[in-house]
Specification:
By secondary structure, the chain is α/β, with parallel strands linked by helices. The protein has one domain (11-155): Transcription Regulator spoIIAA (2-Layer Sandwich). It has helices at 2-7, 22-25, 32-45, 63-73, 92-96, 100-122, 146-151, and strands at residues 13-16, 49-54, 77-81, 130-133, 154-155. A 5-stranded parallel sheet has the order 1-2-3-4-5. β4, α7 (146-151) and β5 (154-155) form a beta-alpha-beta unit. The longest helix has 23 residues, at 100-122. The chain is globular and about 45 Å long.
Length: 167
């Protein structure tokens, strides 16, 4: 499929990953091996790919590992998304939405990974993996100057401007 998508002209495939290990990913999706194979297929065919990471209470401790995995494997981007109301009934959103302490932990990771990225950029190394944030998470970055965020590769949500979903 990766070959066919590349030949069809797809610009980038986004792959959902809930954790950097089978144990963490398996808490919400039992597809870690399949996901890792999809990443490898994209890499092998040269299809540009990125990761989507839905930050929840169950996996927020995996955020830094997923960002580093994306960088190590050559992801074009790691998109950090906030939980949204699922289409299924239940209290999932209330249970899994991070609380204030959780969002502060996410903010700490963002500061850590963008600080090291900025240092790499000032030594003329171009970053390979961009971080993008769900626009509803922009409050995590209000203490950062916009030029720092831009140089660190942090962008807002491009939905409806650059993406298409085909079913």
């Amino acid at each position: 499929m990766a070959c066919e998508l590349k030949e069809a002209g797809l610009g980038q495939a986004q792959i959902s990953l809930k954790g950097g290990s089978e144990a963490i990913n398996g808490q919400t999706r039992p597809n870690f091996a399949t996901t890792m194979q999809a990443i490898e297929n994209c890499r092998a065919t040269g299809l540009r790919w990125g990761l989507n990471f839905l930050v929840t209470r169950s996996n927020l401790t995996a955020l830094e590992a997923v960002i580093e995995m994306g960088r190590r494997l050559g992801a074009a981007s790691v998109n950090i998304l906030r939980p949204k109301l699922p289409t299924t009934a239940g209290d999932w959103l209330a249970r899994e939405s991070p609380d204030g302490a959780g969002y502060r932990a996410v903010q700490k990771v963002l500061h850590k990974v963008t600080g090291s990225r900025l240092q790499a950029e000032t030594s003329n190394l171009k970053p390979q993996t961009r971080l993008t944030l769900d626009a509803s998470l922009s409050f995590l970055l209000t203490d950062q100057p916009p030029d720092h965020l831009y140089r660190s590769g942090i962008w807002g949500c491009y939905a409806a401007r650059k993406f298409v979903t085909v079913t």
